[in-house]
Amino acid sequence: MAFALGSLTFSSPVTCKATSIVSSSSSSHALDATFIKRAAELADSSAGFTAPHPNFGCVITSATKERERVVVLGEGYLYGEGTTPAELLAVEATGELSRGATAYLNMEPADCATDHTSVSAIVQAGITRVVIGIRHPLQHLRGNAVRALRSEGLLVDVLGEDLQSKAFEGALKSCLVVNAPLLYRAASRVPFSVLKYAMTLDGKIAASSGHASWISSKMSRSRVFELRGRSDAVIVGGNTVRRDNPHLTARHGGGHLPRRIVMSKTLDLPKVANLWDDTEVPTMVATQRGARRSFQKFLASKGVEVVEFDMLNPKDVMDYFYDRGYLSILWECGGTLAASAISSGVIHKVHAFVAPKIIGGKNAPSPVGELGMVEMTQALELIDVQYEQIGPDMLVSGFLQPVPDLTPNIPSMDETSAIDPNVSAYESNIIFFFKTWDPHGAFSNFSLHPIQMPDENGDYFTWPSVEHYYQAYKFVGVNNPIAKKCLEDIKNAKSPEEAARLGRKIQKQRPDLVRSDWESSKIDVMYRALKCKFSTYPNLTSMLLSTSGSVLVEASPHDLFWGGGRDGEGLNYLGRLLMKLRSELSADSLSNENNATSGEEENEVKTLS
Question: Where is the composition biased (Polar residues) (predicted)?
């Protein structure tokens, strides 16, 4: 299969003749920029499948001595956290040809603090040069891979640091954009938020009557499905639910399904709505504390999650979603809520679909309500604006806030500790963990640590993650073809997120397929899996033992059984099991030390005698 990069055309593997004198520095920079852009393009391939996670792409190239011919040897991208890293996939595709080659990465590798697979794959493959688009934006991961690669003798060039040229501006921008959600999360401590709307040529999102179907074309609506599929959640207001009764699904033939969020202060919502059907996609309603308790109970009976806020506003909701680990939010709300979100400073990008239609109407709603501006000089201007014709419509997109370039702003924890040894990456008495990118993210069931445990037949099977094992065991021993198929699908799920979605979906839709003793046995199932995981990987054992004296809390604000809950009301069983395991491992370690000491003393006595 061939693909194009600028003026060069590639197949896999690819040989291409440079179109200018490649021995010059500018041409060398152009080639580096081209392959970094390709790595960013590959990284974007996973968006919409297993969100949320950082996007990683890798391109491995070789060249003749004169650099007149460039050969693309292998490529890869990270499908999702817990799956094979992009670098390892590219190395496996390259084989022995990788010795002396150059690897291009859109971002410094590291999806988990204890996972060194990417660096090891590059080093063991014999690659001699690595070009990196941007350093990792998270403090505890930033710079670690760069230092590790350089310590192994590899030449590592980072755009904007070791490679400074106008030729790299486009490549650097590509790297920033493809991981914009993670960059905004690191810089602003809120999820990356995109406001999307469709309007007529005269700026209306509905007629005066409120009727809005359909402003944009079918092709534009298909693009909206894609935008939803790239998001962790989709937000609408109460007016949208009452007026449009939306489904808010990503109807693009599979992939990631974002959670649907309704923001409503009063809960003046209809009892019959498409969003209350959570068969395929979960729904959450964010409301003000105390609003319509009876309706909250009704929503709960439908399986809809209700989260109360002291004061319902976009900033507090985004803070909550930050704690929940979300990276990307799509706002498809009306003008009032859109104006509130913009005023709160939580909207980072805008996608406006403009249809070649005029509807008029003095009272017809516009996409953004009152912002309090009285002069045109106060208008907010988009940057990095792009225009794309989609069928008869025009898509105008741009950023309200620039994509953060964290290169000069966020030192690594190693660098910070060197300046002030008293600085700690976490509280000394309570250690929170949740997502794999957290400092203690390896404690997560979604971390990339396969375990060997028995399957439904009692045969030992390599489960890709603890989450795979846990979700599958809900259906072990159930004599039903659907349960058996679900179990097999979970075993083969590409990522822990997919395994979790499959297990939870069937458990909710068909509770009769779940083994009858699951509620009484699930803690034991989880503990067996955790014990296997931490016993298999010495570095995890060391990490767990290093937390001695600290309380471990899974910082899930919504899981009140395994997590600590939003206000500490959760049972935190995952944290409890890890602390129990830590105690056992500590006792075993102490016993081994005592046995070793006893053996040394016995040898000394024999020597003296």
Answer: 588-598
